[in-house]
Write a structure and sequence with these properties.
There is one protein chain. It is built from 9 helices and no strands. With 220 residues, the chain is an all-alpha fold. The protein has one domain. The radius of gyration is 18 Å and the shape is globular. The relative contact order is 0.12. The model has no long low-confidence stretch (mean pLDDT 90).
Length: 220
């Protein structure tokens, strides 16, 4: 059983615990439901590991289903973040439409059991674009924001690190996979673990900001 507790699973469970502590009473619905999204993510990851380690022929369908939940939930988060900007809504609608089109294409091409690589890469690029738009707006915003206490900033930052890194790794996967740092693991193993730690670390801190630090910043 301990073999299932990979570094990624531990990071996800830690982030889930912080979300439960910090967001269970949040009055904004999308933040309040973040724990449910993380729980779905953990269940999907454990299912994928179980299928792989028990030599099932396919576990791609688990991640294909998770991909839909992931993209839908993160899009809803960005809808809440971009609620002040009409162009932000247009970007999200365009991104969701492109993802839905490619996901449907891959589903019709090879079915649910084969992993949708093109859809995931496209999703990652779209989410990087969302994050860059957020930063662009932040730099041009006249309102002063203490980013060290901003839950939105750290949530977006975690996603930017993760999805930009994932996209780069996917593009150069064959070359990175050929580099072995340790006897059992290639360079990609360490990169993906670092990206997961950055993502869930930033998200955990954003939950802490949401619960305590943003309010303290407002009081000051």
């Amino acid at each position: 059983m301990l073999n299932y507790f990979t570094l990624t699973i531990i990071a996800e469970l830690s982030c889930l615990l912080v979300a439960i502590i910090c967001l269970s009473k949040d009055n904004v619905r999308i933040w309040h439901y973040f724990s449910a999204f993380l729980l779905i993510t953990v269940i999907a990851e454990l299912t994928g590991i179980y299928l792989k380690r028990n030599h099932h022929p396919h576990n791609g369908w688990v991640y294909n289903i998770l991909m839909v939940f992931e993209f839908a939930f993160i899009n809803i988060m960005y809808v809440a973040i971009f609620r002040r900007y009409s162009i932000g809504k247009a970007i999200i609608i365009s991104g969701f439409g492109l993802f839905a089109l490619l996901y449907t294409y891959e589903f019709l091409k090879h079915g649910l059991f084969e992993y949708n690589n093109l859809s995931y890469t496209t999703m990652s690029i779209i989410l990087v674009i969302y994050a860059l738009f957020y930063y662009y707006d932040l730099m041009n915003n006249d309102n002063y924001i203490r980013i060290i206490y901003s839950a939105e900033f750290w949530w977006v930052t975690g996603g930017l690190f993760y999805y930009f890194g994932e996209t780069a790794c996917d593009l150069f996967y064959d070359k990175l996979q050929a580099v072995h740092i340790a006897f059992f693991h290639s360079l990609t193993y360490y990169i993906y673990n670092i990206l997961n730690l950055l993502l869930y670390g930033c998200w955990s801190y954003s939950f802490i900001c949401r619960k305590w630090l943003e309010k303290r910043s407002e009081i000051r």
